[in-house]
Amino acid sequence: MIKIFALGEAPHGANLDKIKEILENRDNLSGIFLEHPINYQDSINSYLQNKKIDEKLQGFWGRCIKEGNDIKSVDMYLLDFSFERKIPVVCVDSSKTQTDEYNKKSDIGYWFLRGESRDEDMFENIVRTYHEEEEWIILCGAGHLITEIHPRSGKKTLGTRLKERFGENFSYIILGQ
After folding, report:
1. pLDDT value for 158
2. Per the CB 3.0–4.6 Å rule, which of 31, 47, 57, 127 could disulfide with 43?
3. Helix (H, G, I), strand (E, B) or coil at 89
4. What per-residue confidence (pLDDT) applies to 177?
């Protein structure tokens, strides 16, 4: 049985109807892993507690729009869905700010947890949060799932790492193709 199901977006934010269709049919969902930098976790948690969007999250969405990824409507759906079901949304991407834990500077504007790739950080964050027999959805960019080696980092992608770790308990679908 699939316990970790990844939705690979291409492009980010353009697949709301399909995401709704998939999530509405998941009755035993334990949580959602989201490809957002971990330094936005407090903003996500705040929304899940009081349904208020802070300036930090608004700024993040604004920067995403400038990069051509209007993710706000998908995020709002995921946050409201999680609020109603009382399940967590966990940011799993590398940090955009340096912390005690995320202290390896990258050349692409991130701070890494351990190694040298966002895929590795996302994998590590998923593994440390996931508990056996839980069912989680991952929402991330399609490129993190469809290739075995990431073209920029030369490291295994998130999808490759998850398949190696979880075998047939992991599956994914690419949205927007």
Report:
1. 96
2. 57
3. strand
4. 64
Reply yes or no on whether the pLDDT at 123 is more than 70: yes
Residues with Cβ within 8 Å of residue 166, at least 6 apart in sequence: 3, 4
Domain-wise residue ranges, the chain: 4-175
Query: CA dist 30 to 65, 137, 149, 177, Å?
Result: 29, 8, 29, 27
Q: Is the pLDDT of residue 159 over 90?
A: yes
Q: Which of 23-32, 100-109, 120-129 has the lowest mean pLDDT?
A: 100-109
Residue count of the chain: 177
Residue bearing tokens 């802070």: 54
Angle in degrees, CA 26, 9, 46, rounded to 5: 65
- CATH architecture entry for 4-175: 3-Layer(aba) Sandwich (3.40)
pLDDT at 78 over 90: yes
Helix ranges, 11-157 (H): 16-24, 41-50, 55-66, 72-85, 118-129, 143-146
Q: What is the pTM of this model?
A: 0.94
List all residues 6 or more positions away from 109 whose beta carbon is below 8 Å from its beta carbon: 96
